[in-house]
User: Fold this.
Amino acid sequence: MRLQYPVNIRIIRTPCTGKLEVEYFMKAFENGADGVLVAGCEEGSCNFIEGNFMAKRRVNYARQILHEAGFEKERLRMINIGAADAYPFVKHVNNMIETIRNLGPNPLNQPNRSSNIIPDVMPDEMIKQEIQP
Assistant:
């Protein structure tokens, strides 16, 4: 039986979560991700000895940066899970999706950030320019 998880997630496989840098998490949000879930091996089970511990430190540091930048730190989460733990993995994914639904979309994806959409508050002369052919 193949387990299903929502199609609105994107899985990116890496050899080890310890190879992930803080910049990767920040870039994901900059590129429009509403949330990031890092799934590493169980603590003490890393093939690269301390990779998952390094990842945990980096995720916590990135969460601090997100918070200081005005983002909800809950948008970034790390779990430690075994490779054969499909049911718990799907449960964590669904929990993360529910968290993101409650938080709403990435603030960087708000309509007023796009040049193709008229912001909610705009001077009248700019609205006239936008409407005229």
About this structure: The chain has four helices and two strands. The longest strand covers residues 36-40.
